[in-house]
Amino acid sequence: MVTKSKGLNSKTVTLPLIPQETPSLSAQKAGTIRIQGVHKSFPQFDAPDIIVLADINLEFKAGEFIALIGPSGCGKSTLLRLIAGLVLPDKGRLNLDDAEIGGPGYERGLVFQDPTLFPWKTIYENIAFGLRARGVYPREKTRIPEFFKLVGLEGFERSYPHHLSGGMAQRAALARALVNKPKVLLLDEPLGALDAFTRMNMQDEILKIWEHHGMTTIMVTHDVDEAIYMADRIVVMSSRPAKIEQILQMGIGRPRQRGDPDFLDLRAKILKILHFAGTKQELPYYL
Ligand SMILES: Nc1ncnc2c1ncn2[C@@H]1O[C@H](COP(=O)(O)OP(=O)(O)O)[C@@H](O)[C@H]1O
Ligand SMILES: [Mg+2]
User: Fold this and answer.
1) Among 73, 76, 100, 270, which residue has the fewest nearby CB atoms (within 10 Å)?
2) What pLDDT does 287 receive?
3) Is the beta carbon of 5 within 6 A of some atom in ligand 1?
4) Contact present, 236 and 270 (Cβ < 8 Å)
5) Using CA atoms, how far apart are residues 205 and 199, in angstroms rounded to an integer?
6) In the chain, where are the structural domains located?
7) What is the C-alpha end-to-end distance of the chain, expressed in Å?
8) Is the CB–ligand 1 distance for residue 52 below 6 Å?
9) How far is the C-alpha of 114 from the C-alpha of 128, rounded, in Å?
């Protein structure tokens, strides 16, 4: 049933990979994201502008885990890139706590579907890159080993990205985003390219990090099971121009079991909503 989530208070997942001595991580603060009246369109060659987002209003509470789902091309990545500050809205505003988002910032970490590691740099250098970009390397380099531990990549410091499996490369990308202790972690289909077993393991890894670290996490996924397994709330977007179709609060505790009746009930409801979202425009009969 869709009821109030237990959220961060239900810390029943064990944390075998998390080192106990990580005061800098637990000192981490989460941030609230407010999206008010946001419109975004893109110019097209020889065609009218494409309206991607129309009047989006959302609030993600500090420490929440949000899953963003919706039809392909509806504007999920655009919304994430707006929060990251990589693109700016045409109208409306986005805030992280009291500050308006006007560009990229280290307090908002972004992980893409493709790990996007620098192939010519070692894993250590890839993870250190975040600190260098922020201008705190080498002053804060003593923190790097804790992030290798956090994502289970100890021993791979000198390896290059092509030495790693897809799951390991994605862990490295996650560590690179986390090394600056972001208040908000933005994940754009981060597990989409992984095989089913690695994907389920990574879901647990991300949940452990989130439960320990406490940052607000917004994850785009097209996998309904993944969204129910991981999120406090699921935001369902409609087809372009995207509107918020539904916001569903998960009423099931953690850790979740994919076979539980409550889980399957939610799954059936969300699949029904998704079926209607994105099929409102009738297809021409000759297609
Ligand atoms: N920089 C851009 N320039 C032009 N069109 C873009 C740009 N970014 C995204 N779009 C278009 O906006 C729409 C939504 O894209 P996106 O946010 O990537 O969708 P989703 O992640 O939901 O699949 C798509 O039609 C895409 O082609
Ligand atoms: Mg996308």
Assistant:
1) 100
2) 41
3) no
4) yes
5) 10
6) 1-13+28-107+183-278, 117-181
7) 38
8) yes
9) 19
pLDDT of residue 45: 86
The pLDDT of residue 276: 59
| Shortest-distance ligand to the CA of residue 88 | 1
1-13+28-107+183-278 folds as Rossmann fold (3.40.50)
Atom of ligand 1 nearest to the CA of 220: 21
Predicted structure pTM score: 0.86
DSSP calls for 40-81: EEEEETTEEEEEEEEEEEEEE-TT-EEEEE-STTSSHHHHHH
Residue with CA at minimum distance from ligand 1 atom 4: 42
Alpha-carbon torsion 172, 210, 206, 58, what sign? negative
User: Nearest ligand to the C-alpha of residue 76?
Assistant: 1
pLDDT along the chain (287 residues), means of 10: 39 31 50 97 91 96 96 94 97 97 94 91 95 90 91 94 93 92 95 90 92 94 95 92 89 91 90 66 48
What single-letter DSSP state applies at residue 150? H
Q: How far is 186 from 39, CA to CA, in rounded Å?
A: 20
